[in-house]
Write a structure and sequence with these properties.
By secondary structure, this protein is of the alpha/beta class. The chain is 32% helix and 26% strand. The protein has helices at 41-48, 74-79, 96-106, 111-124, 140-152, 170-182, 196-202, and strands at residues 2-10, 16-25, 30-34, 56-61, 64-65, 81-85, 158-162, 188-192, 205-210, 213-218. It starts with a strand and ends in a 7-residue tail after the last strand. The protein contains seven helices and ten strands. Bound molecules: adenosine-5'-triphosphate and magnesium ion. Adenosine-5'-triphosphate (ATP) is lined by residues 11, 13, 15, 17, 35, 37-43.
Length: 225
């Protein structure tokens, strides 16, 4: 469960990115985060990753107050969250296997287990047999599949995606969205997006942000600003 309770984020120069935003997301829910540029979507994701702290209000993740000054679980928190970005952020000098395996290596998972985990997530994203391929040899859509595989490896419970289809053509965007859809009900998924077609046709829960406020929370809805 993720809870935002009157979360306000002001940047140093006085910009208010989030203004008393409150919501609750039960486990394994699928959420689209929409709203015009500057509305606060990325700020919500960054606060969840603890890339920055709240100015006021609180954020609970599985009953832990990650916004509290005494919260020391940053490493564990980040291990439980997979992240997908608009520009993929795939390491160019590492092959597909290495890109996906890296987070598991860091925490000391045995090589044999990593190998089977990578196989499993590559199958999930439809990239079997691409383990040895280097990023330059992949299309943008394939790179984003690798990024999703990297985000879901190790059984992470929360997946955050910031405009994951922002650099993709409509057909490829749909293919990527279908992968997220396959994860539905198994993980909590929050996708910030400007893709109105996808949001309207998938009919998931939608948070509409407007100038730092949560303007609407559609239980099963479309893109509406
Ligand atoms: N590092 C920063 N310093 C100061 N202000 C910032 C910073 N990052 C974001 N902001 C401001 O906070 C507000 C919310 O930004 P945010 O990036 O969350 O918007 P967004 O909804 O993700 O927009 P987009 O759709 O363009 O990605 C904007 O007014 C932005 O200018
Ligand atoms: Mg953004």
């Amino acid at each position: 469960m993720i809870v935002f309770d009157k979360v306000t984020k002001k940047y140093p120069l006085g910009n208010t990115a989030l203004d008393e935003v409150s919501f609750e997301i039960p486990d394994n829910e699928f959420i689209f985060l929409v709203g015009p540029s500057g509305a606060g979507k990325t700020s919500i994701l960054k606060l969840l990753l603890m890339e920055m702290r709240v100015t006021s209000g609180s954020i609970l993740v599985d009953d832990k107050d990650i916004s509290a000054a005494h919260f020391h679980g940053l490493t564990d928190l980040r291990r439980g969250i997979g992240v997908v970005f608009q520009d993929f952020k795939i390491l160019p000098d590492k092959n597909v296997f290495e890109n996906i395996a890296i987070s598991q290596k860091v925490i000391g998972i045995p090589n044999r287990d990593i190998r089977s985990q990578v196989k499993e997530v590559l199958k999930m994203v439809g990239l079997e047999n691409k383990e040895k391929v280097f990023p330059v040899q992949l299309s943008a859509g394939e790179l984003q599949r690798v990024a999703i595989a990297r985000a879901i490896i190790g059984d992470r419970k929360i997946i955050l995606a910031d405009e994951p289809t922002g650099n993709l053509d409509p057909k490829t965007s749909w293919e990527i969205m279908k992968i997220f859809k396959k994860l539905e009900g198994k993980k909590t998924i929050i996708i910030a997006t400007h893709n109105t077609d996808i949001v309207n046709s998938m009919q998931k829960r939608v948070f509409v942000m407007k100038q730092g406020k949560l303007a609407k929370d559609h239980k099963k809805g479309g893109y509406e600003i």
